[in-house]
Every structure is written in structure tokens, then in C-alpha cells.
Write a structure and sequence with these properties.
226 residues, alpha/beta, TIM Barrel, 8-stranded parallel barrel, two-stranded antiparallel ribbon, 11 strands
Length: 226
């Protein structure tokens, strides 16, 4: 299995084009005010329209409701969305509404926050959301918030979560996120096969929102050798 790579938190057009040339699986634009990599929905629209293949663009959101989500999807015409919020009924409503607004399937990534261990409540959360998501993204959670923590999930905990997803929903993909950098990925290289995709963001930056292309290339080489 070839592990896919998503690069998230894009804020710069020149860097975006260089990253797209590396043939990554997805490129993510964060439209969340609390994020250091936040770009306005107008900026997301501008940047994504500069992609050679807009289908790799991913809209990263933390919306209050389904309607807001769909309005941003309509504006950007990005049909890969990563959700740091919304409950099951709201996600299903987004999927239902999209049928009447667009002719494209909406690919939903739901973020699940993990810390050191997985309790029964977290198992139920993972099993519930994987039924209504195309992809589950595992990220470190701090103070109730996911994303931007630059902290890694203990790899055995992440593997356990991935197994829960695959047991319940075999077709749902699993993405590993959370402060992934070259040094850490080298240390867990023999365990990356438990995941369909890795998500690179803070671990490949010179400063928030500005990516280190050289580091990304080295990680892609590592993945090719995995």
C-alpha cells in the first residue's frame, strides 16, 4: 500500500505550486480563525483556483452549523472538507444539502482528537463518526481543541484508533496528523503502514503558514521507501 501525503495550512501561492508539483495527494487550506494558518474564504477561493488540479484542494473548517459549511463549499467549489466540529446529524445534513446544491460528491474528513490513551467513550466516538465519514483524521487534542498543537499522538494509541476504524468501517480511510516531522516519521517508519495517509503541517514549517519544501521532499522520499 502506498501511503498518501496531505500538506495542510497553505497560505502562499508560490509554495502551493511547488508542493503540487511534488504530486501530493491533498493540499489543505485552513479557514479557522483561531489558527495561525487561517486564510479567509476569499483567499481559499483564490489559492484553490490556482491549483492545476483543484480536486486535490481540501477546505479545513470548524463551523458552527451545516449551512455555513455548505455555503463555504459552494463558494470555493472544494469538495474535500475537513471538519474540526459538527456532530453526526449535522454532517449528515451537509451531505443531504450538498445533493441539491452541487453535482460533486462531498468527501468528508472528520477529525478525532486523541491524547495518550483511548477510553470506551473515545472508542464509541470513533466508531460512530467513521460510519458517516470518508476519512478519519487522528490529531492530538489539547484544551478540547484539535489542530495546531504541534504535538504527536503516541504511535501505539494512533494505531489502536486506526484499527478501531478499520474494524468498524473497512472502507473509511485513516490519516495520521499531529506535529509530524522528518525525525519523528523516521522513528515510526515501520508503523506507517497502519495509516492510509499522513498530514503534514507544523512539522514542515519555517514559521506558521510557510512551508519548508526541502523537508517535504525528504519526507516524500521516506514514504517512497516505506
Amino acid at each position: 500500500m502506498t501511503i498518501k501525503v496531505k500538506v495542510c495550512g497553505i497560505t502562499n501561492e508560490n509554495e502551493m505550486k511547488k508542493i503540487e508539483e511534488l504530486k501530493v495527494d491533498k493540499i489543505g487550506f485552513i479557514n479557522i480563525e483561531r489558527s495561525k494558518r487561517n486564510v479567509s474564504i476569499d483567499e481559499v477561493e483564490y489559492l484553490s483556483n490556482k491549483l492545476t488540479d483543484k480536486r486535490i484542494g481540501t477546505l479545513v473548517l470548524e463551523p458552527n452549523d451545516a449551512y455555513t459549511t455548505l455555503m463555504k463549499v459552494d463558494k470555493t467549489q472544494l469538495f474535500n472538507i475537513q471538519l474540526h466540529s459538527l456532530n453526526i446529524s449535522e454532517i449528515r445534513y451537509v451531505q443531504w444539502l450538498n445533493q441539491y446544491h452541487n453535482f460533486n460528491h462531498i468527501n468528508i474528513t472528520k477529525v478525532i482528537g486523541l491524547q495518550d490513551k483511548i477510553n470506551n467513550e473515545k472508542i464509541k466516538e470513533i466508531e460512530k463518526y467513521c460510519l458517516y465519514s470518508d476519512n478519519i483524521l487522528l490529531d492530538y487534542i489539547k484544551d478540547g481543541l484539535t489542530g495546531g498543537t504541534n504535538k504527536q499522538i503516541p504511535i501505539d494509541t494512533a494505531i489502536k484508533a486506526s484499527r478501531i476504524v478499520k474494524t468498524k468501517c473497512r472502507k473509511t480511510e485513516v490519516t495520521l496528523a499531529g506535529g509530524l516531522n522528518l525525525e519523528y516519521l523516521e522513528s515510526i517508519q515501520d508503523k506507517l503502514h497502519y495509516f492510509d495517509r499522513i498530514d503534514l503541517n507544523s512539522g514542515v514549517e519555517d514559521k506558521p503558514g510557510r512551508k519548508n519544501i526541502s523537508q517535504i521532499k525528504k519526507i516524500l522520499k521516506l514514504i517512497d521507501e516505506t
